[in-house]
């Protein structure tokens, strides 16, 4: 089993930055795809960014050029650097790990961390 714990969420002003972290425990996640997903109130959960075990990244169009996902396999941790934040980035952000790069393919999920961006 893998436990994922997110941290780093909070309140930011539009144009500001936040850095989310996701620490994995229980077993190594170095062989899994890792991803950040978000869910705004009344909306479906959506993919934000993913990263393969080898470091290949993928981003939602809405965050390209503003967000950066990275991972440190030695620390069993994945990060999401969020810059130029917009009010529409407000959501609960979830970290996930799994064998397939889709929401359904993610096997393990954290409980989420709330990001609120004020205008």
Strand content: over 45%
How many beta-strand runs?
11
Order of helical and strand elements = EEEEEEEEEEE
Number of helices: 0
Rg from Cα: 13 Å
End-to-end Cα distance:
40 Å
Helix content: under 10%
Based on helices, strands and strand pairing, what is the structural class? mainly beta
Oligomerization state: single chain
Largest sheet: 7 strands, mixed
Shape call: globular
Overall mean pLDDT stands at: 95
Which stretches of 5+ consecutive residues score pLDDT under 50? none
How would the blueprint of this fold be written?
Layout (H helix, E strand, L loop, with lengths): L2 E5 L2 E4 L4 E8 L7 E7 L6 E6 L5 E3 L7 E6 L4 E6 L8 E8 L9 E2 L3 E6 L1
Parallel strand pairs: 2-11
Antiparallel strand pairs: 1-3, 3-8, 4-5, 4-9, 5-6, 7-8, 9-10, 9-11
Question: What would you say this structure looks like, in words?
Answer:
The structure is a single chain. The protein is an all-beta fold. Helix content is 0%, strand content 51%. The chain is built from no helices and eleven strands. It has strands at 3-7, 10-13, 18-25, 33-39, 46-51, 57-59, 67-72, 77-82, 91-98, 108-109, 113-118. Strands 2, 4, 5, 6, 9, 10 and 11 form a seven-stranded mixed β-sheet that branches. A four-stranded antiparallel β-sheet has the order 1-3-8-7, with no helix packed on it. Strand 4 (33-39) and strand 5 form a beta hairpin. The radius of gyration is 13 Å and the shape is globular. The mean pLDDT is 95.
């Amino acid at each position: 089993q893998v436990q994922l714990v997110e941290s780093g969420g909070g309140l930011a002003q539009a144009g500001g930055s936040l850095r989310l972290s996701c620490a994995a425990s229980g077993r190594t996640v170095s062989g899994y795809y890792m991803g950040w997903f978000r869910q705004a109130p009344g909306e479906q959960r959506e993919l934000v960014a993913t990263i393969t075990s080898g470091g290949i990244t993928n981003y939602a169009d809405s965050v390209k050029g503003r967000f950066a996902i990275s991972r440190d396999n030695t620390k069993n941790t994945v990060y999401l650097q969020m810059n130029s934040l917009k009010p529409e980035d407000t959501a609960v952000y979830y970290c996930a790990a799994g064998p397939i790069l889709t929401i359904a393919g993610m096997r393990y999920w954290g409980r989420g961390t709330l990001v609120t961006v004020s205008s």
